[in-house]
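Is nicotinamide-adenine-dinucleotide placement plausible here? Inputs below.
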Amino acid sequence: MTDQLLGMQTTDTEAPGSQHRPSPAPHVVDPTLPARLARRVRAAGDAPRFDCLTPFTGGVVATLPVSTVADVEQAYDAARVAQARWAARSVADRAKILLRYHDLVLDHQGELLDLIQLESGKARRHAFEEVLDVAGVSRHYARKAPDYLRPRRHLGAIPLLTQSTELHQPRGVVGVVGPWNYPLSMSITDALPALIAGNAVVLRPDEKASLTALRAVELLDQAGLPRDILQVVLGPGRTIGEAVLDRADYVMYTGSTATGRKVAERAASRLVGASLELGGKNAMYVADDASLRHAAESAVRSCFSSAGQLCISIERLILHERIADDFLKHFLTRVRKMTLGAELDWGVDMGSLISQAQLDRVTQHVEDARAKGATVLAGGHARPELGPYFYEPTVLEGITQAMDCRMNETFGPVVSIYRVSSDEEAITLANDTNYGLNASVWSKDTRRGRHIASQLRCGTVNVNEGYIAAWGSNGSPMGGMGESGLGRRHGAEGILKYTESQNISVQHGTPFKVPPGVPEKVWARSMATGMRVMKGFRLS
Ligand code: NAD
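Reply from A.M.:
I modeled the complex. Tokens:
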């Protein structure tokens, strides 16, 4: 499939004096795929087109149409009509589609991995995390949504005489705007619980994620989702992204904290709910009793997955001083052996950054730290001979508050080392950030690990793992504290946010009416006695 689709050639020749591999020849995408995918975009037949580029070479792999604000309006109109029919179907019926989707995503993983790699430039092993994520989220909500969404009976105002039920009504049409870094995961997983909760969705994936997102949508069509329920528009964030969110009955946004703030303001001004999944400056603490080999191996994945362009990846490594040197021996040996390359295969450890803007940001953070006195323990250079945006996995030490990478998210393959002498110092340092997305704690004593974890101001904390344990635990909520976001994905919160709770209470008899001939004072006293009796029972 790979060669057919992309006409891609790779070579296994090692670059002289390095573990790194050269880039493939420019890709040639089979023109039938983008042409087919373009039909799933709400845009006019003669709409202007934009280039889908591959970071592996910087070359154009396809063109897709750009939607207009009028297209967004039409998408909402069609979605609203379809949503009424969709919401009338049972949750169990909607769930069957997600179970079929689970299988289709796994069956088509080779093709999806090619597209993810091609659009994002990441290594195949990191692209595979996205396939697992989508399958996991689909399965979780297919199995659990009927329970999350079922009507719940509550104790009524007057026991037995008042029957109160909580319903979860769909909000209507949810607007989803996603980032580029996880073209499959971040384009589709937030739409899935919204759909199963009975909403329609208007999806605007990032332009750099469009091919993968459209293929993911096609597979949902194949799984049996009515077409109009999920509308796709493409175009720049500031125009089309904004138009999508400005018409939504609920806003689901993933991106940087700076943009998230503006998105939240716009949603608040319309009194519309919003879930925001934003940036992070995540820390891993390795305590003095940690398994150092395992911690070092996990740190490599946690710092450099998707070349560090992962919101939950680790940018700060906090080491207990008693084990810091031993840990670094394992870690740096492994980092220096990492292979970089543009293969559509499993052979390389890390791929490319996505764009010149990302390369500029990473270079600026490293050069700023270097100029202000930081030591570069590994990496620290771009690798243009591999592709236009490759950058080495980089480890810095001697970071001060004056350096840009101390408090700001780099969102690249750059991690800084900090040494501490106690758990308390590690906790203070890990919490010294405005963000609060993800953290990792390493200790063989899991009670100690849990205790440290509970004191970290982060939405997810992994004990003896970097990020996958929490991310892959789909029944538990995931999201950011502080400036890392609002709301949660996964678990009950990840689906109930797409609903509005409704309280339907049915009254039998007329207990709230003062009976004829009874003085109101007497009636009030008997009500108060009833309240005191109820206090003795754990009923409400
Ligand atoms: P960004 O905020 O610049 O853009 C994100 C998306 O929003 C893009 O598709 C962009 O086109 C669009 N956009 C821009 N302005 C908009 C507007 N006014 N209205 C609507 N949409 C708009 O972020 P980025 O730099 O492209 O992405 C990287 C950031 O995303 C990092 O900070 C990363 O941590 C964060 N991120 C967070 C998560 C998470 O789950 N917490 C996941 C992935 C990425």
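Short version: Residues 177, 179-181, 186, 206, 237-238, 241-242, 245, 254-256, 259, 262-263, 277-280, 311, 409, 411, 437, 480, 485 surround nicotinamide-adenine-dinucleotide (CB under 6 Å).
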